[in-house]
Amino acid sequence: MIEGILAWQAIIFVSIALGGRKRGWIVGFWVVWTLLQVFALWLSVIQFGTIWLAWSIFGSKTSSAVEAPPPKLDPAVEAERLAKQKREDDEFKEAHRLWVSHLSGALRAGRWIPNGSAGRLLAKYPAPKHARKTWKQSVGESTPEETLRLQFDKLNAQHLARQKIARKDFFAAVEKNPLTDEQIHACVCMDDAVMVVAAAGSGKTSTMVAKTGYALHEGLATSEQILLLAFNRATADEVGQRIAEQLKGVPQVEKVRSNTFHAFGIDVIAKATGKKPSLAPWVDPSNPGADVREVGDIIRMLSEQDKTFKRDWDLFRTVYARDVGKWGQPDEPEAYANGVRGFRTARGEVVKSKEERTIADWLFYNGVNYEYERPYEHETADHQHRQYFPDFYYPDAKLYHEHFALNDKGQAPKHFQDYLSGVRWKRELHARMGTALFETTSHGLLTGDAIPALEHALIERGVQPVFDPSKEVTGLPRVHEQDLARSFRVFQQHVKNNGLTHQDLLAALKAQSKDGFGARLRMYLSIYERIAAEWEKRLQRGNFIDFEDMLILAAEHVESGAYKSPYTLILADEFQDSSRARIRLLRALSNQSDPPAHLCVVGDDWQGINRFAGSDITVMTEFEKTFDNATRLSLSTTFRCPQDLCNVSSQFVQANPAQIKKKVKTTNPLTKTPILAYGFADQDSIAGYVEKQLVHMHQLAVEGKVTPANGSHITVMLLGRYRDDKPTALESWQRRFGDKLKIEFRTAHGSKGLEAEYVFVLNVVEGTRGFPSQIQDDPALQLAMPAPDPFPFAEERRLFYVAMTRARKQVRLYTTLGQPSRFLVELAKKEHIRIEPIDGEALEPCPECGRGVLQLRSGPFGDFHGCSRFPACTFKRKVDQGTATPAQPRTRAQRLPASTKAGDQCPVCRGGVIQSRNGRNGPFLGCSRFREGCRATGNTGQG
């Protein structure tokens, strides 16, 4: 077509050229003709495109149908092909039938099918394979194992339903309360490894007793094949006694074994070696704290015999005992003085960072004369800069010292605005003025390079540091040596329980030194290894073992086969308190037989409070990773606390997202307010008010208006964070009210597993030895632990949950209006409680931090409301600004005990240091936290 158009165009152009007078007509004809040809060409293109599109979609099929018709099938060949397919299908059906028959024969009728059975049966009876089809095409499920698991789940559900009926009477009577459906499921389920996550008061021990009885009644195990393991002796004895009482009609039930892990470990070692090992006397449970004292004795001995150890130990306890945190993370101020919020040093001044405190303490103990933030010798104040105050000045060396918060790349933390320009300005200023400047950085301090460099610089300028670890402290007291000894003992427990080698610790040290205080960690590890070496020598000399050895050696003997376990049913209580060594022993016992022994562990990660003893709470959150074919069940019904208390305590502990989530419901019908909080002007007032409440409760009991739930006495449990929270009048109260009230004192740790109708939690205050306790775990412990718990006060939060959930009727919390615990402030802010002021005004939570409360303070510009957490929180509000709730008035003065002297920890607030002060009436003793609300005072002649 295109060639024709071009030919006609040529003819027309010639006609136009020769047309003469007819040229106009010819041009008009040409235009019309050209338009028609273009339109025709467009239609052709459209037609071609349509044909091409159709071919692209259908062409291959059409062409094959047209051009290459399929050959006609040979009827004989086709018949053979179909016959072959039928044979393959029939062969698979028969193989599948035989496979199912083998499996059915291998399973015991009327029994729970463990979830690990699928894998074991497939190993013994491999699934048939179809010649041309996948398993999914043949059967419907993706794999043979999935087929078995789905079928076993159905069979187990049917078995559980049958057992609820068949053993109805047993489940209703085996304990004082009929078992819940969750408890029955835990009894009947016999999967390879079962973890029962149990709420407080949900009947953990009852479930273990019932499961033991169920297994015996069903013939799943003989009494000699059942082993129950507990965290401590009291629990082991209780479980054994409950089994003897509740299952007394079962033949040979007395042969069921109930032991602590350690007692069982000793027996394993004795049977494997033929010789019962001796426990070192300093780790005997009947002598609490003896292990820490032994570590202290080792430290003293090494200090006397080894000069290098003595210097390292003295340097650590004086200068490096306190960590500085990770680089780049903001420090929360702990002290206030002369307008500076920060951290108190050994000499007494307040510096702006923990790193500066470390430097200042090194200077103090080395006798170096220094001035902190003394005004620069030249005037620098102008329209852009205030007067310059260098970090340190050494008059004897005429040397200025700036400590810059810079990392190894010379970078400042992100929250430090324009910091580098300030660094440059200071350097240029010293160069311009000709003053000597020495620099250290965060990187240098953390790696350990800064202090030696500082010492060298001072020596070069004629100042010779002389280390004196016995120098009298006038500011922040040294960390108590017993606390350091306890830290090393806990570290040792984690190292041994986790089976860590020297190389493992070095690898952890390298990892944590990237942004941590590497110099301190190296010193800590070096000191520990020398202590641990002497510890092991003492064990060898006495032919002793310690608790960790019991578990480690026992696990080794089970793993090697030197000990043959007779147990097919293994139960473990308080699983949240397990260490890695306990886990190793449980795995060894379970895996020694084929199929494995049934393992059932019961625990509550919300009550994981024994980290100091080597426990690792991740054993619960990582249960499925640790044990093959693991199943997780739950006990969410409590028989103890009222529902409102369940709700408050559950929400409180689950603020930590790492805790296993569960919703707790109760059988307790009480609806009366289950949680009360009282605020006092000072801690001395708490005991008096508690006594008034006991008098009132006793009177109601005498009048019959309050009756005990069980027995003849109303039970009252007084709880404290520490032993020294025990009221001095306790014995007097027990004598006065003992005819109607059973009153006892426990620490929060010691209350675990116990309960009472009324629980009084004393001294729920903010402070070093308050609740939460702010005696923080040494960061060095992380070298020996799998993973840190980043949530603030995570273990203290769990401990407070334990304290609250001991109550069957009511829990009462007692605090001071000046320093209420952040836990109470949190509960009050969420309107779970109201802190009722007994001798003061109602409290208002701080609107800025939400962790403190507002207090009335005085300043140069009049009265104002400030946060009780000052200096950590600097919120202020004038008194005349609107307040929905009155703030707490000034705390009245409180006398110090006669034995108090300067340098002691304040016995009133437990967070400050007693200092000598001068007042209108002469010198007196006062607390360093005076501006924070502590009004403790005493005479300088005390002590």
TrEMBL record:
Q: Which residues form the UvrD-like helicase ATP-binding domain?
A: 177-642
Query: Among the entry's GO cellular component annotations, what is one?
Result: chromosome
Provide the reaction this enzyme catalyses: ATP + H2O = ADP + phosphate + H(+); Couples ATP hydrolysis with the unwinding of duplex DNA by translocating in the 3'-5' direction
Enzyme Commission number(s) from the entry: 5.6.2.4
Q: Origin, by domain of life?
A: Bacteria
Q: Which residues bind ATP?
A: 198-205
Q: Which Pfam families match?
A: UvrD-helicase (PF00580), UvrD_C (PF13361), Zn_ribbon_Top1 (PF01396)
Biological processes per GO annotation? DNA topological change; recombinational repair
Annotated TM spans: 29-55
Work out whether the entry's keyword set contains Ubl conjugation: no
A molecular function (GO) term: ATP hydrolysis activity
User: Where along the sequence do coiled-coil regions lie?
Assistant: none
Sorted keywords for this record are: ATP-binding, Helicase, Hydrolase, Isomerase, Membrane, Nucleotide-binding, Transmembrane, Transmembrane helix
Q: What is this protein called?
A: DNA 3'-5' helicase
| Organism for this UniProt entry | Luteimonas marina
Q: Provide the organism lineage as a comma list.
A: Bacteria, Pseudomonadati, Pseudomonadota, Gammaproteobacteria, Lysobacterales
